[in-house]
Design goal:
Elements (H helix, E strand, L loop, with lengths): L2 E3 L5 E4 L7 E3 L10 E2 L3 E3 L7 H4 E2 L3 E3 L2 E3 L2 E2 L6 E10 L2 E12 L5
Parallel strand pairs: 1-11, 2-11
Antiparallel strand pairs: 3-8, 4-10, 5-10, 6-9, 7-8, 10-11
């Protein structure tokens, strides 16, 4: 799998926060995708945790794909991968997320 990293530096989120991240394919020089693939999520050990931290469906709109809603389950690094079909080939965009546990005080 050839992955194009959208962000070199990790994005920051709190455990329990829910965001549907947008992957912009035009920003990495990729033509408009013809289809959105299934969003994937991996934890810092490399385990596929998609079933526990992702909800909904990826939605394609021109050169953007709004990924499944991501809700980190614990304080650690995650990687989200959003595949898309471009000119009959699968292109994979990825982004790192450093998730922390928010504490009052």
């Amino acid at each position: 799998m050839n992955i194009i990293w959208v962000e070199e530096n990790p994005q920051v989120m709190a455990v329990g926060e829910s965001i549907a991240w947008i992957f912009e394919f035009a920003d990495v020089g990729v033509a408009n995708p013809s289809a959105a693939g299934v969003t994937l999520a991996y934890d810092q050990s490399g385990a596929d945790v998609s079933a526990t931290v992702l909800a909904g469906a990826a939605v394609l709109a021109t050169s953007q794909i709004t990924a499944k809603k991501f809700t980190p389950a614990s304080a650690q690094r995650y990687i989200l991968i959003q595949p898309a079909t471009v000119d009959g080939n699968t292109v994979w965009l990825a982004c790192k997320f450093d998730c922390f546990k928010a504490e009052v005080g």
